[in-house]
Amino acid sequence: MAEGCELVYFDLRLVHDHFDRALVQDDDIDLKAYLDAYNELYKFFQLMGTVFGFVSSDLKQKIEVLIELMNKNEQCYITIKSMIEYEKESNILDKGDCTNGSRTLLRLHRGLDFIREFLRQLGELSDSDKTSSCCQDAYNKTLAKHHPWVIRKAAIVAMYAMPTREVLLKKVCGTDVQRNVDILPKMLEVTADVFNRTHNLYELHELHSLP
Fold it and tell me: What superkingdom heads the lineage (predicted)?
């Protein structure tokens, strides 16, 4: 690490707080708060290094696409509901060569399914347990369904190198391991609310099969 650089660790409390703020009225999701939470989750993948290379660079790119759309048209990208309605009414979703927020967010939504399932299983392990099996299981239940065979194979192989729960948590949380472990149940609860609301919005507008 370069001199003067301070390693920024992953903070589950920030994920909890941002996702909690994202739960706005009318069963909607505040887009900025959602992305703030996701930026914190992205740190987890960065700190894990090449093990999660199959997903981390893709997530970062999609976060940046959504931030750019928000900056260009703030009023239409306040919430997930306003984004979907605007893009449907503007026929943006019908243009295959057009970058749109609904398709981009759908990829993040699928990624969140994997993250929350992995963290849920991680919370049930003992410190000496290897994390590779629960990560593979979480991946197979979620993201694997949306990945081609080549990516699935590479991802599963990469996960074999994952450390024990104790080593993993120290790597991503630094000295604040217990603080993160303590907030994990509440974080998973609010993340489930965010995930379910988003899922329902996509279901309502029949957008789960966006290419």
Answer: Eukaryota
